[in-house]
Each structure stands twice: as C-alpha cells, then as structure tokens.
Design goal:
By secondary structure, the chain is an alpha/beta fold. It has helices spanning 12-24, 35-44, 61-71, 86-94, 107-129, 163-173, 182-190, 198-212; strands spanning 4-8, 28-32, 49-53, 77-82, 99-103, 137-140, 143-146, 151-154, 157-158, 179-181, 222-225, 229-232. The protein has two domains: 4-119, Response regulator (Rossmann fold), CATH 3.40.50.2300; 131-237, Winged helix-like DNA-binding domain superfamily/Winged helix DNA-binding domain (Arc Repressor Mutant, subunit A, Orthogonal Bundle). 32% of the residues are buried.
Length: 239
C-alpha cells in the first residue's frame, strides 16, 4: 500500500514542489495550508507521516505538534523551520517532532528524511524478526523492553514513547556500555549524517530521560559521557 503523507505548510510554492516529487515516488499526498485545517485532517484520517511547518496561520506548528502527540505517539513528524527560529526548533523537538529540516532546504534532503523516517519502524521490525526468542525482551533494572511489541514498561507501567524515542532507546539497549557520539546516533537511528542537527539527538535524549528516569538530572539508564556523547548502562550497573 502506498504511504500517505500530509504536508501542513502555508507556502503554496513549497507545498506544490513537495507534492510533485512525492507523487513521482508513488506517495499519496494531502495538503493543508493552516494549522487548524492540518490538525483536523490528522484527527480525521490516518497518515504515515506529517510534514509540519513551524510558522502557520490560525494554529502554529508547535501547538499542532503537541495536539498530534496527545492523540498519536508514533506518527512520524518532520518539522520545517527557518534558520532564525532556533529556540522554536528545539521546542518542536521537545514537544514530540521526530525530525526537523531547516529552510531553505533541498528537495533531495527532504525526500531522504521522509524515506528514513518511514523506514525506521519497518527496519526495527525486521531486526526484531531476526532475533531469537531469548532476545525478544530485555529486563534491566525496573525497565522491561519488549522488542517484538515495541513496548516499554517501567515498574509494570507502560511508558508512552514516540516512534523515534523508542527507536533510540532500543538502539541503546542493544548496545549496553558502548559510548556513542551524537553524530553516530543520528546516523544509526535517523539514518543520515548532516552537520548541525545534533539538537535532534539531544532533544530525544532529554525526552527519554524525562519518561524513564526517576531523576533525569542523575540518570540511571542513559548516561552522559563527557566529551563523547551518551551510553546505555550495562545490567550490572543497575541495582
């Protein structure tokens, strides 16, 4: 089945350009030119991915992103931002966007981001299918990760994660004790290497810590390795 993508963008030239290229690749593209119309479409139809502009009439992209996440934790969201919107870009990631791209952008880069975000769930499912039954779950401390169901529980309570938050946590958990730079995580989990996009990793780490750590300032599971990046604890480090 062809993937269905929604672009919420008030610049009709950008929308039309993206539409031409996505249709050429076989995607089904829907359009909305303001935040209210875009949110209404998300709430009434099923999409595989949303491209969301930050600055929108009627309802801005940050609010749209927040409301989408209240309904759907897993729907991939790529946020479009301008170079002058640094703080809003960070806030967009903190509210649940999976990725962002800075205007002006090349259509080739946007298409690459779309493809990698759409592939991420399928890639992790394929990885799970190749695992043995003994590796389908990981218990570490009070956290249980069920790779087959893409489900995380903490003290027997389900933790609601976005698709990328889960992908990042699962990648960490499969490599306990190993230190990763932000660039390595960006390449491994998001599938690309573009300088200047470290905020994507940092924001997802912050969101994960807020959800799985008792004290995010003194994390138990995801440790900061100064001068390198981050690492996931080994089982014998957790009480």
């Amino acid at each position: 089945m062809n993937k269905k993508v929604l672009i919420i963008e008030d610049d009709r030239d950008i929308t039309d350009l993206v539409a031409i290229h996505l249709k050429d690749l076989g995607y089904i593209l829907h359009k909305a030119y303001d935040g209210e119309a875009g949110l209404a479409k998300v709430l009434s139809e099923n999409y595989d991915l949303v491209i969301l502009d930050l600055m929108l009439p009627k309802l801005d992209g940050l609010e749209v992103c927040k409301r989408i996440r209240e309904r759907d934790k897993a729907l991939p969201i790529i946020m479009l931002t301008s170079r002058s919107e640094e703080m809003d870009k960070i806030l967009g990631l903190e509210l649940g966007a999976d990725d962002y791209i800075v205007k002006p952008f090349s259509i080739r880069e946007l298409l690459a981001r779309i493809k990698t975000n759409l592939r991420s769930v399928e890639a992790f499912k394929e990885e799970v299918s190749k695992s043995t039954d003994t590796k389908s779950e990981l218990q570490i401390g009070e956290m249980l990760i069920d790779f087959a169901k893409r489900k995380v529980t903490l003290r027997s309570e389900k933790i609601e994660l976005t698709a990328k938050e889960y992908d990042l946590l699962a990648y960490f958990a499969r490599h306990p004790g190993r230190s990763f730079s932000r660039g390595e995580l960006l390449n491994a989990v998001w599938g690309y290497q573009f300088s200047g996009y470290e905020h994507t990793v940092n924001s997802h780490i912050n969101r994960l810590r807020n959800k799985i750590e008792k004290n995010p300032a003194e994390p138990t599971y995801i440790k900061t390795v100064w001068g390198i990046g981050y690492r996931f604890v080994e089982p014998d480090e957790v009480e």
